[in-house]
Design goal:
With 255 residues, this protein is α+β, with helices and mostly antiparallel strands. Helix content is 18%, strand content 31%. It has six helices and twelve strands. Helix 3 runs antiparallel to helix 6. The N terminus is likely disordered.
Amino acid sequence: MSRAAAALLVLTLASGCGGTTAVSGSDAGVGGSGTGGGGSGGGPFAQCELPPPSTCSREATCEAIDCGGLEFTEEGCKRPPCERERDCAEGERCVALGCAFVGACEPDGSRCSCGGPAICMYGSACNLEARVGPGGEWLRVELLQGAGPCPPGEPCTWRWSVTPDGVREYDENGVAGTDRLDDLAMQELDRLIDGPELRPGLVSGFDCAPPPTDIGVTLRLELPGRTLERDVTGCVVSGPEGNIPARVAGFLRRR
């Protein structure tokens, strides 16, 4: 599913995704001519191929837009936008952003004032795989669950899987079937899988509550050439609320 198809506008009150953010200080001055103060006009972002939407100094801009994050580099340059993995350089992957910066920053007296529409718009940016986990457009996500001790004659196993076309297969304690997730559910699931948290967690582990001993839950993500797999029992069963594996499991189990 392309990033363009998943570009939904979501109302938010988060500063930095809308409204106005002001940073005070003597270094909030003009960074150079033109948006971003980069390019042939010089300024603090002259080295950026994609300068940020700011005419403030680099220091003041970075206080306002989270330099070193998923959307801007430590120097304040904008990371390359993308729709698919092929849009990124080798060693990078296209990461889904929950809230892309849609405003602009400019000096306002001694302040650097950043403002824009009071909306949050989904976006995506190229980031190093070393930071955001293995790349590759996902092929299948699967949740496996088992419980015990099990009554005689019952399998006590459950399996749910979804492919990028939205087809969901399930086998719930011996009752199997196929259906399809709706478009909105697939957009949200796609962004969780392509976001910055799930893939690193499947490689290195998640910080979740201790699991029970009578149930086991495994989350598996199939990518081109490799499969990521992790025991997520504590996350799915115990919490904390809203953790990424539990949210993915919620979409796979949806009826």
